[in-house]
C-alpha cells in the first residue's frame, strides 16, 4: 500500500501520529519556532533526554521520546541555514527528510509529520524548500510499504497553498 502523502495547516504539536519531526539546531537543546513549541508542549523531560543525545550535525536526525505530546516519538533534524545556495543547502535539506524517514522506518513508525524545515529562522526560501521536501519524501516512499502516511504540517495558509501546489505538480 503506497504511503498517503498530504499537507495540512496546523500546529504540529497537536498531531496524534507515530512521529513528529522537529526543526532543531545542532545542539538539540531547544530554541524558538517549532523547536520551542515542541519543547514547551512535550515538557522538561524532553530537554533532559536531548542533553544526552549529544547534538546533531546539519542534515542528520536523532530520535527521542515525545513525553506529553500525543505523538509517540519526536525525530529531531537539523536543517541547513540558507546562505545563498552555494553551500550544499539543497542537498542538506533533502538529507534531513531522508534521514528522518530512515529513522522512522528503523523504529517501526508508520505515520510522520514534517514542519517546513529551514524555512523560518534558517531563511531557506519556501518556494525552493517545498519542492525539495516533496521530492525527497516521494523518492523515499516510492515502492515501500513501511510508511503509511507522511504529513506536511504547514503553520500558515500561505505555506499550505504552496505545498498543495507542489504536491499536485509532483503527481501530474
Ligand atoms: N507547528 C508547525 N510548524 C511550525 C510551528 C508549529 N507549532 N511553529 C513554527 N512552525 C513553522 C514555521 O512557520 C516555519 O514554517 O516551522 C517552520 C520552520 O521554522 P523554524 O521553526 O524557524 O525552523 P528553522 O527555519 O528550521 O530554524 C531552526 O530555529 O527555533 C530555532 O532551535 C531552532 O535554531 C533552530 C532554528
* N-C termini distance: 20 Å
Structure annotation, total helices: 5
- Low-pLDDT runs: none
* CATH fold-level label: Leucine Aminopeptidase, subunit E, domain 1
Q: What fraction, in percent, of the residue positions are helical?
A: 40-55%
Write down how many β-strands occur, each being a DSSP E stretch of 2 or more residues: 6
Main β-sheet description: 6 strands, mixed
Whole-number radius of gyration?
15 Å
- How many individual domains? 1
Full CATH superfamily name: Leucine Aminopeptidase, subunit E, domain 1
Please list the strands of the largest sheet in the order they lie side by side.
Answer: 1-6-5-2-4-3
Overall, the morphology is globular
Q: What's the mean pLDDT score?
A: 98
- Helix/strand-derived category reads alpha/beta
Strand content: 15-25%
Bound molecules: adenosine-5-diphosphoribose
Top-tier CATH class: Alpha Beta
The CATH architecture category equals 3-Layer(aba) Sandwich
